[in-house]
Amino acid sequence: MTRSVAGLRCAACDTFVDIATPLSWRCPKSTDEDRHHVLRFEEAVEPLTAAEDSDDPLLAFGDRLAWRAFAAAHELSPEKCDRLTRELSAAVRDVDGSTFRVTPLARAEELSRVLGFTADGGVWVKDETGGVAGSHKARHLASISLHLLAAERLGLVPWSAGDRAPLAIASCGNAALAAATLASAMQWRLRVFVPSWANRVVTERLMALHADVVVCPRRAGDPPGDPCVREFRAAVAQGAVPFAVQGPENAWCLDSGRTIGWEIAASLEAAGTPPVDRLFVQVGGGALATCVLEGMAAAGPVPRLHPVQTEGCAPLARAWERCGGPAGAAEAARRWDECMEPWAEEPASAASGILDDETYDWVGVADALAVSGGSPVVVPEAAVLEAHEIGRRTTGIDVDHTGTAGLAGLLAVRDHVADDERVVVLFTGRERRPDH
Questions:
Q1: pTM of the full predicted structure?
Q2: What beta strand segments (E) does 100-181 contain?
């Protein structure tokens, strides 16, 4: 049985967009005054439980991906979709030396011992540091890229190949690097909107990849919210393509992001590991947590989700409390205005990659929390630093502070986790140094 994605439906207003619609980034009813809409993929049949035999997740889980349903609606054959996927992966390899591949998931023996877990329990680490551009972010951008390339080949875009609309993203970390890598691979112009405190190593790499870096300082008298996001939205209003990892800005980032969850489920099943009890996922914009739990749900029972934010920027936990927790999750999308608001203080943490002023995909995270019976975790900065030290020392993985923030969540609630529980954390980003 082949999985069929019928289209996209807005969680806030119930508007339906047929899967054949090209460039269907945002809900048609989303406006500059009312951006609290998010499209979610709607399947016509139950998802498959097994992947094809390939080390490329975009091929291994190809028949589950919505971009291919879009292509099929316009009679682009599976063989041509495979060829397009391989071409993108090869072009990425030429730019970055890495490509899309299934990333490892394994029980971290020393970490489990240090944290006091028994042999029946422990911590399983999903290591995304070897992904494209050193993180998981390219997973989210892959389906946007393939949708764009397919639409272009089908003649369904309002530009010519020689005069493409530019891509745009608001990011100062792994998402920006992934976007610049993919843009370079596709030979597509990219504008990156970054804060004034952006990491110099990151901005230099962006410029080396020929991205146009736009610094967006936070000024007194600015309205609430991230100035980078404001400038990004202005660029999109002027015709740029939202090459974003936030569902409300581009729903297609929620398509291939699910491959991470599918991989986790497939890896655990192949290893004969009993069901996982808890899943700790660091949350900035919220797309990762949304996608991972949705992907795991395709294979059966889901673990309790614990989205992790820092005390220096925790809009999700506040919104979850305001909406009434599990009892209010079903109405989260309709209560967006009253529950989710930008973080008023200047965001601060060593885990700089999760300092989004808003949890843009909080509706998806709220759904995942309700389905899984989980709860948000807000960690002190000391736990962020401790998790980074312990995570690197016990696993040998060259991961950054953002990448170990999920582990920080486990450390913060370790006293409430039984010693025989099985826990998954994601190490999402490689440490950035001048030689990287």
A1: 0.94
A2: 105-107, 122-127, 167-170
**Burial class, 373, CB count within 10 angstroms (exposed 0-12 / middle 13-18 / buried 19+):** exposed
Q: Provide the strand spans (E) within 93-246.
A: 105-107, 122-127, 167-170, 190-194, 212-215, 241-242
**Consecutive sets of 10 residues in the chain, 436 residues long: mean pLDDT of each?**
78 97 97 94 63 85 95 96 97 96 97 98 98 97 98 94 92 93 98 90 94 92 87 96 97 97 94 95 97 90 96 97 94 94 88 93 96 97 98 98 98 98 97 66
Spatial CA neighbour of 356 closest among 305, 316, 403, 391: 316
Backbone φ and ψ for 366, nearest 5 degrees, come out as -60, -40
Instruction: Name the residue among 340, 343, 344, 342 with its Cα closest to residue 319.
Output: 340
Distance CA 358, CA 355 (A): 8
Structure tokens at 301: 């029972």
As a 3-state breakdown, the chain gives helix, strand, coil percent values, each rounded to 5, of 40, 15, 45
- Alpha-helix residue ranges (DSSP H) falling in 222-346: 227-237, 253-256, 259-271, 287-297, 315-322, 336-339
| Side chain identity, residue 137 | K
Whether the CB-CB separation of 315 and 344 falls below 8 Å is answered with no
Length of the chain: 436
Return the number of other C-beta atoms located less than 10 Å from residue 14's C-beta. 11
- End-to-end alpha-carbon separation of the chain, Å? 44
Sheet of 39-43, strands arranged across: 16-18, 5-10, 39-43
Token pair 């009434």 in the structure block, residue: 324
Burial readout 216-235 (b: 16 or more C-beta within 10 A, e: otherwise): beeeeeeeeebbbbebbbeb
CA atoms of 177 and 259, how far apart (whole Å):
20
